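Researcher: I need the complex structure. Ligand is alpha-L-arabinofuranose. Inputs:
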Amino acid sequence: MKRVKIFADANLTVGKISPYLFGSFLEHIGRAVYEGIYEPGHPTADENGFRRDVLDLVKELNVPIVRYPGGNFVSGYDWTDGVGPKESRPVRLDLAWFTTEPNEFGTDEFIKWCRTAGVEPMLAVNMGTGTAKDAARLVEYCNHAGGTALSDFRRANGAEQPHGVKYWCIGNEMDGPWQIGHLSAEEYGKKALETAKVMRWANGEETKGGRDALKLVVSGSSNHEMKTFPEWDRIVLEHTYRAVDYLSMHRYYEYDETRAHPLEDFLGSADDMNEFIGSVKATIEYVRAKTRSEKRVKISFDEWNIWTQSAPRREPLWKRAPHLLEDVYTYRDALVFAGLINTLLNNCDAVEIGCLAQLVNVIAPVMTQQVGGTLRQTTFYPFRYAARNAVGETVRAISDSDTFATMYGSARYVNAAITHDRKKREVCVFLCNYDGEAREAELELRSFGALRASEAVVLSHTDLGAVNTFASPETVVPVQAELPVVEGGSRVLASLPPMSWSFFKFEYRLAP
Ligand code: AHR
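Model: Output:
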């Protein structure tokens, strides 16, 4: 059997894993909100119309933060349409997705849903048709205690206490010509700076100091295939470096059968995402040096996933909550998806926020039926294991894996991420085997203490195209595997099935 050696030492860390690395994203698009998280009249709906069955799956996924309301949608959204008495909220055309937005669910409902789900809200403001004033007014509506028209309107709408929203995205994908109100880097950089300034002022930051300060995300490139990448990021950051905390990154990968080597190219996604992050880290460092700034802007990777973008649109125009972007994820997708998770972990020194795009029904790990049940897609499982177990810090995983050629360059057959929770004294190993042959992994895990395997899980299937459906929901599910033996407290031999994902957890005692 082919072997791969992976070495890690507790002292060689990449960085601390932020509690917001495995967040998600909820846009007003298709059935993400309506029939997704919100469906009054559904048998499991609570008094707010929130589907409890979906809430349970969100909790199972352990999602810590959710970005809302878009995405492309936000660039045409007037947040005032979505607050106040529901009967007087307008129905609008949504020009981002050519659907009808009923505005039955808006900012207050989202915050309430977040509190019910136990997740941190992350709001995006409109930089397409919206202005700095609109953004500052939304901050006032959400975060000002009372005594002004907007804050008293929030109180009248049922939220006596301020929502205390801390995380904010200044627009979405403003570099893309598909975006409502698309701007050049210069135009957006200037607008984002002014918007950040007045949002902070509306939040009272001149007097309140750092503790309640907003955490602001400025929009980076929509992906690294944009002609304007990385100039967009440099210019935008040069305008805003001192005013913001994060630069956003977005990236979707797809299995494209029209390519000469579709499988190899798809399996190369994780290594390509790693390169992309490397370039953005370098751009941030460049601007930091140029602006003589001590602060380090971090990355909010607030849209990432597998998404077959070439799939044709079938829904008619101007429908309410149509079936849009309802990708059905294969076993192959889950393997690539697991590699993307490893890339996020291996870059946790720079990536502090991650949002899987999206959460429910739209390119999502969770699917729902109207007045019906829920489904865990294949991608649900690698996400759940990472979000629940990848805690503490990432340790550098040094491997001698051989590589294969892809359209992006070379990619490793065995893709690894190793995390270390010092409090719980646990080490977790996440491994993708992208080889059609089984591999034996020889792990040398030094300086942790005497390790003992406590959990072994494998996701494996003979059919790369296998999917979970409502009729057959457990076609692709992880299974418990035999615990690997640990020799001498640090050397582990584990077998990795062909084309598989494995998860191992170890506990350790400290040397006396
Ligand atoms: O997640 C779907 C879309 O992808 C988002 O609306 C947009 O930001 C991105 O292009």
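Model: Summary of the prediction. DSSP finds eleven helices and 26 strands in the chain.
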